């Protein structure tokens, strides 16, 4: 960045004093906008348009080589939606063509040097964009591989649990069943005793099975949110979290861990598991299909329900397309129906997508909104 600034500043010192001030003012505005673009992401596109305009003014008033500063905004340009990126590069190329005409005869065989500054805006953003997409795909592939390995490990753990906790018990029941079969005619009283032991052993086995299934099935929203952070980070998507409740209706940007870990949701294990699974699928859709640069999650605990809203600034789509594409929305609705929940969806082309999961709240012996 410093090199990109030092070169135009050096040449500005040799410009006529009558217009020199204009060059430094434009350069200052360009640097200020460059800094602000990292703090005001919503204004990234207008800021870039103004910066490209400044480069064209510098090229027209002073010299085309001042567009060398275009290298500074190559990375932000690469994050723009493709139609906007194409529009900016086409307009810049055409404008530079008109500006550079008077310099063609002066440069002669060195005219190719004038193409170097244009590389920063017309070519480099596409290279960065392609490289970023490749890295994102590689990261998603690594994440999916890690997830498959985790699933395999979980299957092995389940197999060990079943073998250790139920294998011995079921073998004991089978053995006692053979004993009862042999004693039922010769020693009826002892056979009855053995049958009662079989019943108690079977009840213990059933209890073990229920405990094991409950432990395996419960999935927590806090764990899925941590996974979402990693997944979005790998895909180059900024993830924001907000929390609000009936007792504190103002959305809070902080306290993610407090809201998700220290304060359990007022939901049954089954409800939280389905909510976590639906949240996972929603975040996966954002990463795979939205082409978003940022994603916001709002956890809203109200008196009658718990809502989780996931909104992104991606490409969006027509509402009809959501129900015809393979994005898992039908599966989400089916899961939510199991717990009397529902899903609301809003989207339009170019304006992102918002998915809200509604789960009926289970009221316990606690103050409403304290969760």
UniProtKB/TrEMBL annotation:
Residues 273-361 form the Histidine kinase/HSP90-like ATPase domain. This is histidine kinase. It comes from Paenibacillus lactis 154. One of its GO terms (molecular function) is phosphorelay sensor kinase activity. The chain crosses the membrane at residues 21-41, 47-73, 85-104, 110-128. Residues 154-217 form the Signal transduction histidine kinase subgroup 3 dimerisation and phosphoacceptor domain. Its EC number is 2.7.13.3. It catalyses: ATP + protein L-histidine = ADP + protein N-phospho-L-histidine. Keywords: Kinase, Membrane, Transferase, Transmembrane, Transmembrane helix, Two-component regulatory system. The keyword Acetylation does not apply. It comes from the Bacteria.
